[in-house]
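User: structure tokens for Toxin-antitoxin system HicB family antitoxin, please.
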Amino acid sequence: MSIISRDKKLKGSGKSPHFKMRIDPALREQLDAEAAAQGISLANWFKNLAREALRQKGIEPKG
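Assistant: Done. Predicted tokens:
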């Protein structure tokens, strides 16, 4: 059984807002596999991807 790491919740911080999207099942399977290979949840994989995309545009991500 593998352990998937998630972002640590800081004391006093509220819940982040949810973000929902529809993904083709075949694409979802590929994304799940890549996230699992990196040992992170799919949500954290998307957060990392978004942060990387912002940095490529010269924008320092917040949060």
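User: Anything notable?

Assistant: Residues 54 and 61 are 6 Å apart (CA to CA).
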